[in-house]
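Batch job 17 of 40 flagged for manual review because the log was empty.
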Amino acid sequence: MSLYAKETDEEQIVLPSLFDLLPLLRCPDCMKADFLPIAGADTSYHLNCAACGAEFPILAGRPVLMRHDNAVFPIAAYTAPTATAPASWSTRWMRYMVNFIPDPSVNLARKRVLKKMQALLARNESAVVLVVGSGKQREDLNRLLDTGFLNGKLKIIYSDIDREAAVDLFCDGHDLPFIDQSVDAAITTVVLEHVASPERVVAEMHRVVKTGGLVYSEMPFMQQVHEGAYDFTRYSLSGHRRLFNGFAEIDYGMVAGPATTLVWAIENFSLAFVSHPIFRLVTKALVRLVFSWLKYLDFLLRDRPEAMDGASCTYFLGSRMENKVTDAEIIARYVGAKHLQHV
C-alpha cells in the first residue's frame, strides 16, 4: 500500500504528504524532533524516533502519534482490524433516520469569527492551522477558512483520536506531537468538554502556537451529556476565558443561547424516561421536530448580556502571548446580568 493513499473498494483517497508534516512533528514519548519514515517487512510503514527508538504506525498515510503509555487510547487499538460483520437492520435504520433529525442548536459565531481569523492569517506569507479534535469537520472548516485565500499557502492539519475521523494524523490533545511554536493558529470546537484535563490541552495548544498566533475555541456551558463516558466538563463564558488566559482576547461571546439550552433541556427530560436505543432515537426525533424551532429565538438574544448566563455554548478567539490575563481582569470583564461584588 502507498504511504500516502488509502485503498477502498470504490476509490483511492489521496491524503496530504507525510513529508510536509515531518518538519513540524516531535515524538510524543521523548519530545524530541527526530522522525524518519521506515518501511516494514510487510510493505507497511511506520515512523521511527531516532532519539528514543520509539516506533509509531502509519495508517493509510496517517501517523498514529500516541504516547506508548496512553491507557485510554492505546496505539494497538488503531492497528487492530476493524469488525466487518454487517450492521443489523435496526442499526442501519437508525443511521438512516439520523439524517432527518433536526439539529437542536444554532451557531451564531463560527462563520463570522473564522472569517475574522482568516483575515488575520492573510497578513502572513503562509500559515499552518492545527485543528485539535477535528472529527468530521474537515469539509466544513475547509470551506469556512477558504484554503485558496493565501494562493495555496494555507495548510490545515486535522487531528483527532477517533479512528473514523477525517484526519491527517491521530494524536491525543494532552500530548500534541508538534514542536514548540510550529503552527500559526489552532482551532478546537466542542472538544475540550470531552478531554480529561482541558487545562493541559490548552497548555499544549499554547506551546505549539507561535507568539502572536491565533486560537479559536467553542465550548458548551448549558448542555447535557452528549458523548457518554467521554464527557467531563462544562465552562461558563468567564471560565472559558480563564482557561485561555495565555491568549489575549480578540473576540468572545455566545455560540448558542438560552433558546438552544431550552431545546436541549426538553430533549433530555424526555429521554430520561426511555432506555431502548430505537425508542430513544424516536423520542429525540419527535422532540426536535416539535421544539427545534425554538433555537431560532437565539438570534433575538445574541446581543443581550442577560442571555449570556444561560448560553448553551460560548466561543473565544485570541492571540498567543507570553504573560497571562489575571483573574481580576477576567472577573472585571464578566458579561451577564448579575454583577456581584464580594469585596
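Reviewer: the log was empty due to a logging misconfiguration, but the result itself is present. Residues 1-16 have pLDDT under 50 and may be disordered. Unflagging and moving on to job 18.
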